[in-house]
Amino acid sequence: MYTVPLPRIGTDEAWRDAAKRLVGAGVSPADVLWNFDAETEELFAPATPLPPLTRRIKAPQSFVSLANTVAWHKDPQRFARLYALLWRLRHETGLMQDRADPELSKLRQMEKGVHRCKHKMKAFVRFRDLRQGGARRSFAAWFEPIHHSVEPAAPFFARRFADMDWMIATPDVTAQFVDGHLSFHPGQPKPDLPKDAAEALWGTYFCNIFNPARLKVSAMTSEMPKKYWKNLPEAQHMHDLIAGAEDKGRKMQEAAPTLSPERVDKIKRQLRSDAPTTD
To answer: In the chain, what are the domain boundaries?
Structure first.
């Protein structure tokens, strides 16, 4: 029996390395216990040295892509499910294209969950200006992801905000970008971030672009789940905007411009002249 420790930071690479060694040595999924961030340290035996990598292990690129994403899911069984699928791929040709396979279907659902979490992180991280002076601006943000999405999403922020130093703190992992270098550190409690003057401006902008005539609460909360509202500066206006949407929409309709009778007659004449004739 192999008990494989996996770190919270660099999880995907650690899992890939261990999986290649184990499948290369012919170790069955039933003989492997995956221990993420010492979560099972008290229940199982200490880690067993992994077998050496004696040969190149090949897997479909679609599986590699799937594993690189699912490794960041919060499901404690994700590693066992991935390894079981890798084990089957040795002999089941075309397994990655089998949409009816229940295990592959479950992993695809987990993959979608991680992608969605990364998307929400990119959309809902709100930086605050630390105003520390110096050659580069410095910002920090607090975010509470559903899955372990900080590491796979952080390169996006490094590209998008390459001209400034920043930190994204989460309960899981903290990402820091300083002088162009991206690094990861253990998670932490919510820091006491300073007020940002831009938040009031952003709130004013958000209120002014809000269109009550197009409000669909269920669709809005699907794209912006309420669990994220407490960390969004614009969300403090959300309840008032929703409560007043019906009245504001009615006033917009009443204030809508109307065509003068002369303009209406001209349009009707133009439509009649453009209409096709029949014999």
So the answer is: 2-118, 125-186
